[in-house]
Task: inverse folding
């Protein structure tokens, strides 16, 4: 255990100055605040508010991710594309945590290694957009950039960036994280209870295919019980928070010097990642995140070259520190089998051992004739399969999965055992951004990935 009361270590002047170097670099995807002073004041206020996570937890996560990179653990990262302030209710947070816990039990069985549980939660409020503006019925307004920037309603007032939202974002993240901590430490995560929810899933005739695996897990738990496993110990789980580190007026003030080490930690989340649109090697985001101690992720799309990847490693993980760097690949089901293996080959012999995670969501978007942004469950599964195949072929470790999901019974992605079709999308489409797997589809994906993991190990 890390002692939070160790002597205070001051940070180097140059370390502190470095945290603002990004301000001199090209930067993408930031809002234009109508009132710069108000934005400044909001950021200044954030810098005085308590950290949301503790540096010791962040260090612990780094060691866990290092194990995953070695093939001795598996990362499950999931949650909304864009969390909303209105969606930060007890029920919705509970159901998302529950979904991740249920998936984790299935994956743990499939992989026979610990599963690191991580939410795209408690700070996933800022979104990169492909266009600065949105036009509806001849009216053009600023694009929605996430609840921490502006409102979704299509009115000039709502779409104007409002710096007050930075502080609301912080408080919403704080209350979300508080509830996550309560659920995962207070008995809700009890292995036997989580498994009993999974039995309910497999008992549904639509999911008959997965009954065999659910029964095997059942037997394993009974065996643990009979062998005297300490189920009290299995009532608590580690659960980490993560989001895309996009909005610098939030990320910078939440970055603090840790008094144990004198080093900067982004205390808004345990893990943060750089998106596909902001990973320019000479840009602000890469520079800023190169300076924080958190484990960090980078999304890699299908056009990533081996040289791009090596430059990112040299900037973000120059010491080749285990657990420091995660590559989250989002190639598309049709491209992953061509695009991923060359990257995996290239890295061999470079001394770098990033954790490889698949995001089977962002390369598989489509828009229906009726105008719904959606994804096909089968393509999502196919990209996951392509991910495992690529790693198997090259001899590297497929270390985790990153998905957009919700615990609710929404109808945003096509397919799955409930056979959601284009007409059904309209019944309950709630995402303000990308389509998410619903509760059932998420569990189904976990069962399918568990089967793949069983085949890999
Ligand atoms: C996201 O994770 O919601 C996202 C925008 O992903 P990407 O950066 O991979 O496009
Ligand atoms: Co998304």
Result:
């Amino acid at each position: 255990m890390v002692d939070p009361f160790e002597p205070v270590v001051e940070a180097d002047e140059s370390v502190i100055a470095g945290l603002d170097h990004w301000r001199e670099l090209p930067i993408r995807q930031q809002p234009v605040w109508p009132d710069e002073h108000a934005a400044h004041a909001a950021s200044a206020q954030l810098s005085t508010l308590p950290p949301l996570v503790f540096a010791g937890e962040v260090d612990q996560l780094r060691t866990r991710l290092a194990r995953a990179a070695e093939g001795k653990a598996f990362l499950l990262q999931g949650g909304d594309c864009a969390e909303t302030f209105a969606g930060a209710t007890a029920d919705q947070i509970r159901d998302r945590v529950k979904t991740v816990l249920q998936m984790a039990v299935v994956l743990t069985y499939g992989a026979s290694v610990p599963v690191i549980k991580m939410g795209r939660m408690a700070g996933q409020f800022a979104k990169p957009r492909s266009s600065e503006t949105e036009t509806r019925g001849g009216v053009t307004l600023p694009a929605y950039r996430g609840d921490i920037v502006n409102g979704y309603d299509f009115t000039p007032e709502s779409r104007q960036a409002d710096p007050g939202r930075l502080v609301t974002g912080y408080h919403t993240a704080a209350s979300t994280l508080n509830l996550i901590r309560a659920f995962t430490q207070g008995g809700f995560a009890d292995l036997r209870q989580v498994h009993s929810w999974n039995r309910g899933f497999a008992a549904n005739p639509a999911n008959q295919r997965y009954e065999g695996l659910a029964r095997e897990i059942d037997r394993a738990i009974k065996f643990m019980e009979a062998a005297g496993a300490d189920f009290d110990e299995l009532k608590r789980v580690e659960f980490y928070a993560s989001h895309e580190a996009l909005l610098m007026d939030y990320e910078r003030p939440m970055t603090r010097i840790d008094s144990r080490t004198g080093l900067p930690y982004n205390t808004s989340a345990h893990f943060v990642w750089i998106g596909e649109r902001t990973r320019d090697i000479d840009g602000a985001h890469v520079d800023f995140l190169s300076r924080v101690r958190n484990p960090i992720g980078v999304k890699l799309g299908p056009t990533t070259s081996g040289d791009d990847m090596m430059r990112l490693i040299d900037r973000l993980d120059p010491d080749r520190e285990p657990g420091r760097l995660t590559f989250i690949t989002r190639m598309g089901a049709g491209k992953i089998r061509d695009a991923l293996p060359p990257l995996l080959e290239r890295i061999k012999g470079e001394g770098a051992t990033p954790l490889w995670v698949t995001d089977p969501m962002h390369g598989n978007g489509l828009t229906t004739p009726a105008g719904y942004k959606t994804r096909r469950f089968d393509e999502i599964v196919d990209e996951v399969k392509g991910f495992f195949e690529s790693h198997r072929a090259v001899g590297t470790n497929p270390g985790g999965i990153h998905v957009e999901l919700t615990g609710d019974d929404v109808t945003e992605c096509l397919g799955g055992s409930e056979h959601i079709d284009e007409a059904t999308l309209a019944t309950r489409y709630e995402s303000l951004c990308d389509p998410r797997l619903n509760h059932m589809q998420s569990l189904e994906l976990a069962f399918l990935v568990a089967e793949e993991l069983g085949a890999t190990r």
About this structure: The radius of gyration is 21 Å. Residues 81, 128, 244, 275-277, 299, 330, 362, 434 surround phosphoenolpyruvate (ligand 1) (CB under 6 Å).
